[in-house]
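Our consortium's second objective concerns turning raw sequence data into structural hypotheses that experimental partners can test. To show how far this objective has progressed, the report includes one record in full. It was chosen at random from the queue rather than selected for favorable results. The single chain below, 222 residues long, was entered without modification.
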Amino acid sequence: MRKAYVAVVVLTGLTGVVTGQSHATTANISFSGSGVSGAFVLTYGAATDVKYPDAYEVTGISGTFTDTNNGLAIVNAPVGPPVPINYAMPESDNLLAPHDFSRFTVASGLSHGVLTYDNLFWPSGSPQTASSYDPHGGFLDIYGLLFEIGSGRVVNLWSNGTDSGEVADYGVGVATPDLALDYVGRRVRNSVDTGAKFALVAGWWAARAYLPAPARVGVVGN
């Protein structure tokens, strides 16, 4: 299994939409790196994780995803829907995992045989969500999103947390139930302006793209 660490650009904007008695909010996310890119819109409402009231449950996702690493030739594959959460049991010593913690089993290619996810969006940044893994921050947590791209394939997008300079490091994995297809770590920097938009400054990190990302494998199950 090839592991690549690349710089990624993610642009996120928040837009509230009210329909009748419901309130839906969208987050526009785009990213790119060596061999991978995508642009999609997340939708979430008022429902939050039972354990973390600042974590909003993603209800929809649309857009496109591309991954040409490892000969995959995935080009502008339609994104969505999210893979339903399955309320898996975290490790017994992990007391910080969200209530929506879930697992997607992958038969071959991952050291722990699963992708972990919870499909939660954190507009104010994620807290520590694993007892044995301190790094946190970013609009996703360390488990992240899991969504379909067709032909039995799924994409897992997560945050590895931030460093001392509050720079969030994101990663992506692509798999089927039978095989892990790609695993890419990536670094981005996020900030929130007064209009509730997330802006990205990635230039400095692009120069550091060759550095290894913080280890996620073996900490949270991927």
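The partners drew two points from this record. The helical segments are 203-206. The chain is about 0% helix and 45% strand. Both points have been shared with the crystallography group to help prioritize constructs.
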